[in-house]
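Below is how a single chain appears once it has passed through the pipeline. First comes the sequence as given, then the structure the pipeline wrote out for it. We keep one example in the README because the format questions we get most often are answered faster by looking than by reading.
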Amino acid sequence: MPVIFSALMALLLWGIFSALAALLFVLLVLLVVMAGHARQLYSLAEWLRTPSIETMPESDGIWGEVFSRLYKMVKRHKQTKQDLATELLNIEQATAAFPEGVVSLNDANRIEWCNPLAEQHFSINARRDILQDITYLVRQPEFIDYLHAANYAEPLVMKSARHDDMILSIKLVSYGVDKRLLISRDITQWERVETIRRDFVANVSHELRTPLTVVNGFVENLQDMSELSHDKIRRALDLMAEQTKRMDSLVADLLTLSRLENEPSPPRAETIDTGELLAEVFQDGQMLSAGRHQHSLNLNGPAHLSGNRDELRSAFGNLVSNAVRYTPTGGMIGLSWTERDGQPVFSVQDSGIGIEAQHIPRLTERFYRVDRSRSRETGGTGLGLAIVNCIAQRHQARLDIVSEEGHGSTFSLVFPASRVEA
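Resulting structure:
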């Protein structure tokens, strides 16, 4: 428009004055127009140094259209950037929630990215160790061999170099162009459970094999002997009955433990008269002891407790029977029902052989025995404390063990205050 306007004015000036006047006028208009464009270009150049929607230059005419379109483009770019940042945050949160550690490696085994769980597994830092060769950070020979073997069909199981108690399962997955994902999983608990399972099967087999061997041996002897005295037959039958009773006790304890572990928790609750229950347990202990020990009962705790009576009687009875088995003749066995810091506590204290400190953490494991030969002599199955611990957990209680070798033991079941009933 300015050019068209100046051309018309130039024609008018040419007609009125001269061609020189018209030319000078056109040149002046063009100079002003060019100065305006230069100013807009300068504003654009300055804005491009630090582009921002808030500082976008304002103008009209053709430059107004240019800035308007530029404004829309920058706005779309900013929105796209925000959307990508949101998606990236979602991806980071998702990968952080993975149950496995994930490390992205390039073709040179350098770390490009990792999630927080991988940082824990390999003791690496997502910011500090980016583009570091992972073999410089995880220097275990089996890991390096696995990385270079290029055969990733089977995962590698190894102990964490920085955490001796952690066992990792590691697998490499190729993706993209010469890139790999290193996926790590903490299988420490699974390995522990698998070890317990193997030990359990081995222990059950061993525990059943011994009495079966005894019974089978006597049966074969009775079959081979042509003449048997009444005393020999009686002795053989007594020993076979003893071994079958032992097997029956073992199977019964296994079934009890299996039922407790598979039944829904918490168990069916009822109001228990603790005085009556402990009187029964006390009487059972005296009968099992058969006058070989001194017994005492102290009742200073709550009169009523919420829980499953049959399970609690089994737990209390197991603690008392253990005290009877491992306390020499003439020793003392004391039962007490008291309160400690507002929590009801059932305790069995004995003056028996005691337990070394190194064995105490493992006493509730199935078939764990401090002295295997003595346990078998006294008729123990090795499952009593495992049953007690399982019942305690089902009642939100805990089993405390205090013992010293040669100075007796105290086993306590500490119940939560919420189990007390008026």
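The longest strand covers residues 167-175.

See the next section for the split statistics.
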